[in-house]
């Protein structure tokens, strides 16, 4: 079975693969975080992002983060019209801020896992600055991996779901 993950979910599939590697044939990361043992999301984003997440959570008063629409629009879904961006934004759920600081505990770092790995890189994704990129900065932590590059933003699932589906198929093939 192949497992795919987007963004924060890279933490999840890495942890699952560490626990039950025999049940997974391939991990597919789509502009996703790739943690090594002891890392958190906050370790993999620029320091101003950590401060922004904490500030938003404090303002919300509920220990969660929802980026303001202007930030989300420009950084996460910059490849659609405003109406599509707003429709997508309206269905987002708050993200618990503690998950950004929780450190993962792994027996085996991703590069040493004996599982197939792929990385889908959306080339217009600006949710992380291009001087602090998803690929190759995070993807290189996979060791040997298949790279699939596609045009699009962080939210390709909204802007071009057919292209994303094909990329996942290409990344997951034998």
Q: How many separate domains make up the residues?
A: 1
Gyration radius over CA: 16 Å
Strand line-up across the major sheet: 1-2-5-6
Helix content: 25-40%
Largest sheet: 4 strands, parallel
Count every helix, treating DSSP H or I runs of 4 or more residues as helices: 8
Query: Which fold name fills CATH's third level, the topology?
Result: Rossmann fold
Q: Quickly name the level 1 CATH class.
A: Alpha Beta
CATH architecture: 3-Layer(aba) Sandwich
What keywords describe this structure?
single chain; Rossmann fold; two-stranded antiparallel sheet; 174 residues; 4-stranded parallel beta sheet
Describe this structure in words.
This protein is α/β, with parallel strands linked by helices. It has one domain: Alpha/Beta hydrolase fold, catalytic domain (Rossmann fold), CATH 3.40.50. The chain is 37% helix and 17% strand. It contains eight helices and six strands, in the order βαβααβααβαββαα. Strands 1-2-5-6 form a four-stranded parallel sheet, sandwiched between helices. The chain has a two-stranded antiparallel ribbon with strand order 3-4. The chain starts with a strand and ends with a helix.
Walk me through the topology.
Layout: E1 2-7, H1 9-19, E2 26-32, H2 41-44, H3 47-60, E3 64-65, H4 69-76, H5 82-89, E4 95-96, H6 98-101, E5 116-122, E6 146-150, H7 156-159, H8 161-172
Parallel strand pairs: 1-2, 2-5, 5-6
Antiparallel strand pairs: 3-4
């Amino acid at each position: 079975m192949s497992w795919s993950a987007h963004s924060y979910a890279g933490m999840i599939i890495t942890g699952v693969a560490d626990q039950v590697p025999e049940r997974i044939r391939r991990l597919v990361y789509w502009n996703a975080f790739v943690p090594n043992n002891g890392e958190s999301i906050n370790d993999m984003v620029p320091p101003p992002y950590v401060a922004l997440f904490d500030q938003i959570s404090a303002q919300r008063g509920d220990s969660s983060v929802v980026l303001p629409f202007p930030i989300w629009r420009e950084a996460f879904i910059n490849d659609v019209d405003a109406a599509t961006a707003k429709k997508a934004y309206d269905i987002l759920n708050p993200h618990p801020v503690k998950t950004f600081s929780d450190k993962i505990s792994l027996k085996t770092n991703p590069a040493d896992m004996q599982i197939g790995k792929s990385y889908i890189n959306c080339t217009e994704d600006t949710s992380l600055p291009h001087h602090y990129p998803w690929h190759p900065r995070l993807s290189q932590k996979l060791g040997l991996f298949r790279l699939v590059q596609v045009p699009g933003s962080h939210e390709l699932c909204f802007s071009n779901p057919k292209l994303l589906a094909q990329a996942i198929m290409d990344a997951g093939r034998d």
